[in-house]
Design brief:
The structure holds two protein chains of two kinds. In chain A, 79% of the residues lie in helices and 0% in strands. Chain A is mostly helical. Chain A has one domain. Chain A is elongated and about 65 Å long. By secondary structure, chain B is α/β, with parallel strands linked by helices. Chain B has two domains: 8-223, 3-Layer(aba) Sandwich (Rossmann fold), CATH 3.40.50.300; 232-297, Alpha-Beta Plaits, CATH 3.30.70.980. Helices cover 36% and strands 26% of the residues of chain B. Chain B has helices at residues 46-53, 75-81, 97-107, 112-125, 141-153, 171-188, 199-205, 223-230, 245-252, 276-285, 300-308, and strands at residues 8-17, 20-30, 35-39, 61-66, 69-70, 82-85, 159-163, 191-196, 208-213, 216-221, 234-239, 256-259, 266-270, 290-296. Chain B has a six-stranded mixed sheet, sandwiched between helices. In chain B, strand 9 (208-213) and strand 10 (216-221) form a beta hairpin. In chain B, helix 8 crosses helix 11. Chain B is elongated and about 80 Å long. Classes of the chains: A mainly alpha, B alpha/beta. Chains A and B meet through helix 1 and helix 4 of A and helix 2 and helix 3 of B.
């Protein structure tokens, strides 16, 4: 990345982060909701740990990684809605009239999602540790959890930007959101895949990339260093970023037709 | 003194959206340092023209240059030379005025002390020095428009595009903005392309006016020339006694052709057979007492009516 491009990305990202954090109403509830779900599920589904083959005695430790994913999904909604508002109000046109490059615009906008994703990851990890979760991979593993969580937030956030560029409206972004949310639920969020008895559910969870992102994070918490789970987790997160970025870049060219 | 020796030039500029021809081949020749008013109803093609001239939208056909640069092939050079305040102040409600200016200046490559000094000077000039640190969501419509203008000026452009800059503003804010735009053109030589729905705005500000309707320029010239071209004044008389309206009608028809009048009155557009004093003399001779006599000079709306068969106010629905 050239110095000029990096400077432009930093400027747009700063604005994106500042704007996001100046709207507490939009980021505090999405930050808290995964914590509430974690509290409810870790108590309500605690009995699942007695299933033969369940990989840990702590359902909280098992469920914690899903919070990162869910938080990332909320961050994607915020990033998408904010960009849609920029399109709607003409702010994107204002930026397009400056020498800013399209790539800087996109990467900078992702900044808001990354910033929120990083905050969420730190809060969820902190809450998990405070509630007694033991990270099997130790401190380096905890740091790697933060890295993977931020990558996942980046991927989902970029997908949110693509939706915003495609639909051009906050309503358009929000209408797609339940579908993404649904995708996270048909995964190994509540049970390891080998313990899911319903065949169709297990099959979908097996082909669902979300399962592998959760399992990558989960492996660091309850297994330690599992190379395969980490490779799949990082691989799918990076693939999500690449695909979303490609889609968003193409859509930006359609949306921003400046000569 | 103009900043650029090149103004705005367009030749057969066309923009189609699928089957709709929003701009149907317009020609423009705007001199450097001139204020050009682009007048027309909603949907006439004003904003599409501005989007093409500011490089935000590629033309379907034709060519145009701004400040000497081709809008289709030299987009970055055009953007460096122009400032634009497009329809609806496009601002982020969660950033302060100063943060907006800082972002805009930085994206234009202006940095350090020069940027800070420029920001303070612009805030001062548009009357937002005190409000510069407040978030934009607390600004009034007029303040937003003034910030919008400051943002358009941050990189010292030679050409300024203002797309309906005073829509929704109170009269005081509107006048303040007019003063600043006029000053920019007269004192700093900035070429101004101003779109508006307000006849008064075009009349007061513009050196020349182009009237666009259904994507075509239907009239162009100085406001005075356009009005003189079509315009003869209208005399409207309201009789003191309503039962004298028929007599009044017979009298006024000697001076011109009937035109719209308020209830209880009668109006004619003078056709050269007499002026206002002649009408008053005739009323006196006929002993017709008038409760009210009004002389209307032609307006740009009359020009629009003459060129399109509709008034500008009613044109939105057409």
């Amino acid at each position: 990345m050239s110095r000029g491009l990096a400077h432009q990305v930093a400027l747009i990202a700063r604005r994106s982060i500042v704007r996001t954090f100046r709207q507490p109403g939009t980021w505090i509830p999405p930050l808290l909701f995964p914590l509430m779900l974690m509290a409810v599920n870790s108590n309500g589904l605690r009995a699942a740990t007695h299933l033969p083959g369940f990989p840990t005695r702590s359902f909280l430790a098992f469920f914690l990684p899903f919070s990162f994913l869910q938080g990332a999904l909320f961050a994607s909604g915020i990033a998408g809605t904010d960009l849609a508002r920029d399109i709607d109000t003409g702010f994107l046109n204002r930026l397009a009239l400056t020498p800013v490059r399209g790539s800087a615009l996109l990467l900078g906008q992702i900044g808001g999602a990354v910033g929120l994703g990083a905050l969420q990851a730190c809060v969820y990890l902190g809450v998990g540790l405070a509630a007694g979760v033991h990270i099997d991979a130790g401190l380096p593993g905890a740091l790697l959890i933060l890295v993977l969580a931020v990558l996942i937030a980046t991927g989902w956030g970029t997908l949110g930007l693509w939706l915003a560029l495609r639909t051009g409206s906050g309503e358009g972004v929000q209408s797609q959101f339940p579908l993404l949310f649904f995708a996270t639920f048909i995964s190994s969020m509540n049970l390891p895949r080998n313990l899911i008895e319903v065949t169709w559910f297990r099959d979908i969870a097996t082909v669902n990339p979300v399962s592998y992102m959760i399992e990558g994070l989960r492996s660091l918490v309850i297994v330690g260093w599992d190379a395969q789970a980490l490779l799949l987790g990082f691989g799918f997160a990076l693939a999500l970023i690449a695909c979303s970025l490609l889609l968003a870049t193409r859509q930006l060219k359609v949306r921003m037709t400046r000569t | 003194m103009s900043r650029s020796d090149k103004g705005i030039h367009a030749e057969g500029l066309v923009r189609r959206f699928k089957d709709v021809e929003a701009v149907a081949g317009i020609d423009l020749e705007i001199r450097p340092g001139e204020i050009y008013g682009f007048l027309g109803p909603n949907g006439a093609g004003k904003s599409t023209t501005v989007h093409m001239l500011t490089t935000l939208l590629p033309p379907t056909a034709g060519r145009a240059s701004v400040a000497g640069f081709d809008v289709a092939s030299e987009g970055p050079k055009v953007r460096a030379a122009i400032g634009a305040a497009l329809q609806e102040a496009a601002l982020d409600p969660f950033l302060t005025g100063r943060e907006h200016l800082r972002l805009q200046a930085s994206l234009h490559g202006i940095a350090g002390r020069r940027r800070d000094e420029l920001i303070e000077a612009l805030l001062e000039r548009v009357g937002l020095a005190q409000a510069g640190s407040r978030k934009v969501r607390t600004y009034s419509g007029g303040m937003k428009r003034r910030l919008d203008l400051a943002l358009a000026l941050i990189h010292d452009p030679s050409t300024l595009f203002l797309d309906e800059p005073t829509t929704g503003l109170d009269p005081q804010s509107r006048t303040a903005l007019w003063d600043e735009v006029a000053r920019l053109a007269r004192e700093e030589g900035v070429t101004v392309f101003l779109t508006t729905q307000y006849l008064e705005e075009a009349d007061v500000l513009a050196d020349r006016v182009g009237i666009i309707d259904h994507g075509r320029i239907v009239a162009e010239g100085t406001p005075a020339r356009l009005k003189a071209e079509i315009g003869k004044p209208t005399v409207e008389v309201v009789p003191e006694r309503p039962d004298e309206l028929d007599r009044l009608r017979d009298l006024l028809r000697r001076f011109g052709s009937e035109t719209a009048a308020r209830p209880g009155g009668y109006a004619v557009q003078l056709d050269g057979h007499g002026d206002l004093p002649a009408v008053i003399r005739a009323l006196d001779v006929e002993e017709l007492r008038a409760a009210e006599i009004n002389l209307h000079q032609p307006t740009l709306d009359d020009v629009f009516l003459a060129k399109t068969g509709r008034t500008l106010e009613g044109a939105d629905e057409a």
